[in-house]
Amino acid sequence: MEVLHQNTTKKLPIEIEKYNTFFKRFRGLMLKKSLQVEKGIAITPCNSIHMFFMRFPIDVLFLDKRGKVLKIVPHLKPWRIVPPIKNAHTAIELPQGTAERFGVYEGNYVYY
After folding, report:
1. In the beta sheet, which residues pair with residue 92?
2. 3-state secondary structure the chain
3. Span 24-46, average pLDDT
4. Is the pTM above the cut of 0.85?
5. What class, spelled out in words, does domain 2-111 have in CATH?
């Protein structure tokens, strides 16, 4: 995953798996025991998520079609809902604390 911030690109050691089929998008991370530290998923199209049947908190980045980070929801706990984010096209689910640890901010561009 790469993050563009103020004309500087930094490559993060995170492998993103694309979830773009109905079944993968529906299931997401439900019922999984954990998310590996250097792994994440990109759900497309997606402008909101729920945390039903999740067992661990995550960070979520909502991106527009160009990859701009519109909203970051850090430390999202199980059994919570994120309502639709205007103009969001992709949700990237990452291990809890990843956005802060790697300095990902709203307004950055993310490529995976």
Report:
1. 42, 61
2. CEEEECCEEEECCCEEEEECCHHHHHHCCCCCCCCCCCEEEEECCCCCEECCCCCCCEEEEEECCCCEEEEEEEEECCCCEECCCCCCCEEEEEECCHHHHHCCCCCCEEEC
3. 86
4. yes
5. mainly beta
